[in-house]
Amino acid sequence: MSYRRLVVALLAVFAVVTPAWAWGPLGHSIVAALAQRHLSPAAEAEVEHLLALDHVTELADVASWPDQIQDNPADQALWKQTRRLHYINFRGGPSCDYVPPRDCRNGECVVAALQHYIAILGDKSQPDAVRLQALKFVVHFVGDIHQPLHAGYRDDLGGNKFQVQFEGKGSNLHRVWDSGMLYTTGLRWQAYTQKLDAEGPVALPPPIAPLDNPYAQWAEESCRITKDIYPSTHKIGQAYVDAELPVAEHQLRIAGRRLAEVLNTTLGH
């Protein structure tokens, strides 16, 4: 095999198995902006205080930072430490029941990551720089856990191995859900946030018994959605977008509401 063919083959493999990042910048910005619109005065003041360290005022400005650090040479150690925290691969398929020793080994999943960083964010004995970093991870991971295929099954890496043709190009189902469907609207995050927020408060799913971990419940909810989003064909057209885009938007709205509640509870005292 020639060197050129070898490179092409390797790139094709990486395109299949490398996890994509939930929602992409558009979706993460929407979740962050929806949450910021519904912060309590105390939480809003604390968020503004922490964001000022980065000379920004919007949660949307930092919502994709945990993905972006992979491209910054200075952050490679942090990226290596956190890259497995963006998702959870359920190993008990077809069950979506969360079993920590099986599904979150060594605490390396988005459920445990949320517990970890929310605790740091709420600890005012920590330096502000440490709490700001925790805030960025919390904002991002709440978005991640509500992207259904970030709580999918290990056997196909949350849809990364399910190859599709979308808008005339080769892709995979995970990437379509990360950003492909959202970008079909042509809306930027500010207008998209306004559109979704104008629909009013979103109803949250009922608690899943016997879970007493809200982040585990969020992951199970997302996992259960995946059962209905795999298309019967590998060519995705407008009919699929029409059926599934409302599901994605509903998840964005739920994520925004829950993120606001997390920040109000953690920072509102």
UniProtKB/TrEMBL annotation:
Which processes are annotated in GO (biological process)? DNA catabolic process
Q: Which CDD domains match?
A: S1-P1_nuclease (cd11010)
Query: GO molecular function, one example?
Result: endonuclease activity
Alphabetized, the UniProt keywords read: Disulfide bond, Endonuclease, Glycoprotein, Hydrolase, Metal-binding, Nuclease
Which InterPro entries does the record cross-reference, listed alphabetically?
PLipase_C/P1_nuclease_dom_sf, S1/P1nuclease
Q: Which residues cross the membrane?
A: none
According to UniProt, the name of this protein is S1/P1 Nuclease
| Species this protein is from | Rhodanobacter glycinis
